[in-house]
Amino acid sequence: MSTVVDPADYSRQLDEKTARLRELLAPFDAPEPAVFDSPREHYRLRAEFRLWRQDGQRHYAMFAPGEKHQAILIEEFPIASLRINELMPKLKAAWQANEALSNKLFQVEFLTTLAGDAMVTLCYHRPLDAHWQAAAEQLAADLGVSLIGRSKGKRVVIGRDFAVEKLEVAGRTYQYQQPEGAFTQPNGTVNQKMLNWAYDALGQRDDDLLELYCGNGNFTLPLATRVRKVLATEISKTSVYAALNNLADNAVDNVTLVRLSAEELTEALNEVRPFRRLQGIDLKSYQFGSVFVDPPRAGMDPDTCELTRRFDNILYISCNPETLAANIAQLHDTHRIERCALFDQFPYTHHMESGVLLVRR
Questions:
Q1: Which residues are annotated as a binding site?
Q2: Phi, psi dihedrals of residue 45, rounded to the nearest 5°
Q3: Taking the alpha carbons of 348, 350, 353, 357 in that order, is the dihedral positive or negative?
Q4: Which of 50, 154, 191, 359 is deepest in the core (most CB within 10 A)?
Q5: Where in the chain is the domain with CATH 2.40.50.1070?
Q6: How far apart, in whole angstroms, are the C-alpha atoms of residue 173 and residue 178?
Q7: How far is the C-alpha of 127 from the C-alpha of 154, rounded, in Å?
Q8: 172-179 and 154-158 as β-strands: parallel, antiparallel, unpaired?
Q9: pTM for the predicted model, two decimal places
Q10: Residues of the chain with CATH 3.40.50.150
Q11: Binding site for S-adenosyl-L-methionine: residue ranges?
Q12: pLDDT tens digit sequence for 40-86
């Protein structure tokens, strides 16, 4: 599949992805997938650039896969948000005009949101001193962004170390802290479509939800309004802190969040061994009717996959349709696909996000 950014070719590429998902799910008698498209341009809210010296100046650069020595210099980036494209030349002009900002600067990271917030991270091969701090504070004020400086073993935060996102699900607006360095969905428009699909697929229930791999609470917040209570797990400390703040900021009070991996929670539910982090949580008090999973590219490990078989409903968001199909194959004898969807998070690439609702036969 072509990776050239050509909006005129978008529909053909999306049709190819739909055919691929249909083929992967065909052995499981899946219904026709609902397809959620992406904006053709300016859809990516995150971008990361290495800097490349040429003609005495540093330029934004990217590299072809496997290539380290031949840089592709970037002046604008049509797939990135309008805010990133607006910030890129202003930031470049600032470091070109100020040695304290440019000296040994080797990487720039942007994080923006649909809500209009922006955070810029500057990475250096040198210690950050008072001259850098003064220049960076002025730059952050001029650009209207939070700015983070990183050097070996040190991080300097000017403003906040997170960006604020606002997403609407079923008529309610949720506010999210998206921390620097933590995972967030890169395509905000499609993320909002995913949240609404998951909310609708789960339906209104009078029992409890188990959520594995909850991240910063992206899905947790809206799904919590559909059930009695939620037990959610996440292993990343940064994401756990963000999720706890997001639950508080949105007055969602029926979620218990524990810092455990999916594999550890499986052991706890199977009573293989106790976990100190579950102290005070009565797992037997939950009446789980559904489990929600959004695993990494490797999918669920066999034990976690086996754990999900206990639930009447398995709501599964996947960033890798091959591992999704492998997990469904393990569950197919007890669960059938009631709904499926394709979310085009990554236009002009072969990557796709998909979702299935599996219900007990």
A1: 185, 213, 218, 234, 294
A2: -90, -10
A3: positive
A4: 191
A5: 46-163
A6: 16
A7: 8
A8: unpaired
A9: 0.94
A10: 7-41+187-360
A11: 185, 213, 218, 234, 294
A12: 999 999 999 999 999 889 999 999 888 888 899 999 999 999 999 99
Residues 315 and 357 sit within 8 Å (Cβ to Cβ): yes
Residue 168 has pLDDT above 60, yes or no: yes
Active-site residue set: 319, 353
Phi, psi of 296 (to 5 degrees): -65, 180
CATH topology of domain 46-163: OB fold (Dihydrolipoamide Acetyltransferase, E2P) (2.40.50)
Taking every pair of Cα atoms in the chain, the longest distance, rounded to a whole number of angstroms, is 67
What residues have CB less than 8 Å from 266, skipping those under 6 apart? 303, 304, 306, 307
B/e letters for 7-36, b = 16+ CB within 10 Å, e = fewer, are: eeebeebbeebbebbeebbeebebeebeeb
Rg (CA), the chain: 22
Half-sphere exposure of 128 (CA within 13 A, CB side): 23
Question: Environment class of residue 255 by beta-carbon count within 10 Å: exposed (0-12), middle (13-18) or buried (19+)?
Answer: buried
